[in-house]
Amino acid sequence: MTTQVRSLPKAAPVTVVRARRSLGARLVEGVGGGLVRVFLIVVGLFWLVPTIGLLLSSLRSPSEMSASGWWTVFGKPSQLTVESYRKLLENGDITHSLVNTVLITVPATVLVVVIGSLAGYAFAWMEFPGRDWWFLGVVGLLVVPVQVALIPIAELFGRIGLFGTVFGVILFHTGFGLPFAVFLLRNFFAEIPRELLEAARLDGAGELRLFARVVLPLGGPAIASLGIFQFLWVWNDMLVALVFTKSGTQPITVALQTQVRQFGNNIDVLAPGAFISMVIPLAVFFAFQRQFVSGVMAGAVK
Fold this sequence. Notes:
The protein is mainly α. The chain is built from 15 helices and no strands. The protein is 75% helix and 0% strand. It is globular.
């Protein structure tokens, strides 16, 4: 008895499959990667133009800045000098305000990250009465604008002796940074597999040890993203600093604004001061950009 073996259809050649695609699709596939890279490079260069211009302006004398634009440096490099930065270091108001900015930004960022991490873990994995209602209250605080609380908190700080102090500004930034921090980290920590936490508990790990050994390493990207957001927000803040600081506690943003108002012609001090105020947040962002991208993409991947 003979059996007939039915031959299977052969796979379509690759050339046939490619031929079915439109000419536009093939062109995009061929040059799309290169065009995207070129476009991103051009956008990045345009984004850096103000920073480059401010840097070159800070390295020129006031007479040259008033006579021509900063781009003339490329044809006449002899204009570059560090004299403006020397004058900046001799300006006690600017240097003191830079120190105040660091004293405000670093504690406000650390407190928000630490307290937000602990609260986010508690809302995600710990059982306590009214947990969901408390979390809804924290989420509701996200819609409260800063401007609404300026006058009431200023009056409160004045009564308890915190108005005009660095500590008062730190408390204000910490209070308004915590709702977003708790909301972000709670949602991130809630995505950690329950089996992993249960296994750690079976090994005898308490809540603090579980938080430090398991949750924090897994939440590193989200915590880094939060730290970058908080650092940039506090460092570049001017509204809160204008209301809650005095002459001896002003950060760099208020000090530069005061210099412009009082001495409008001292561009040799303002330009390097503004560049330093700009370049430090940029350095922080680029230093942690990998963690920032990982934290932003983590929620999308999950």
